[in-house]
Design goal:
Length: 291
Amino acid sequence: MDFGRLVTAMVTPFDEAGQIDWDQTAKLIDYLVENQKSDTLVISGTTGESPTLSTEEKLLLFDFAVKHAAGRCKIIAGTGTNSTEASIKMTKEAEKLGVDGALLVVPYYNKPNQEGMFRHFEAIATSTTLPIMLYNVPSRTVASLSTQTILRLAEIHNIVAVKECAPLEQVAQIAAAAPAGFRVYSGEDAATLPTLAVGAHGIVSVASHIAGTEMREMIEAYLSGEVQKAAKLHQKLLPLFKGLFEAPHPVPNPVAVKFALNERGLSVGSVRLPLVPATEEEQIFIRSLLA
């Protein structure tokens, strides 16, 4: 399965009552594919506010995204939880709906050891034929997949990629030693170019909601050997990459990107509690990023 170079972790549009806005979801999918040049969309990841989406809402989103995208991009379903049994059930249901892959986050809160994490992902992978992208994000889960465990999991035929938010050194180690065809994606926008330089394949991005075309240009410049051009584009985009998470102090994702999309005329609504909308100070800062 080729998920491409530019993968967008899509926000979930809500209406004024805080329910999924299906008309705006359709418009957002069109915008991300046609205007921002996303190869793949992750539905119901952290950026999609998965912790506050019900199981029914997630399945409805997977079904809707598959049907509306209609082959124009790949659809990865965020089906991972900190319960192996629940993750298996969700992944099987997503497979029935026709998604192209599943994103499985490291189990959060219960803090399994490396063997526990291996067995968790192994159990889910062997329950489905879907291509699996692991998601290692220590800042959110506390537990972190080691290089050795990721390489061990990469031997399972349908575990095909990892979204990696660990240090650059781990990205390089995985890229160097993984089986042919296993791909490493950066999970941090600001690390897109550095991780490409050490062997990553692409980015699972938040900023691509706003600057996807520029990010694709940067990636393609680097891959074609235009390193200086890629560096200039990275330098230009870096304030946006950082600002969407530090506006002007750390802001929970997707608060800033949802505000930015609304400013750009895409009515994706607000966020669900326990997240809260951007403050007036944060709004001013985010507007400055878009200027």
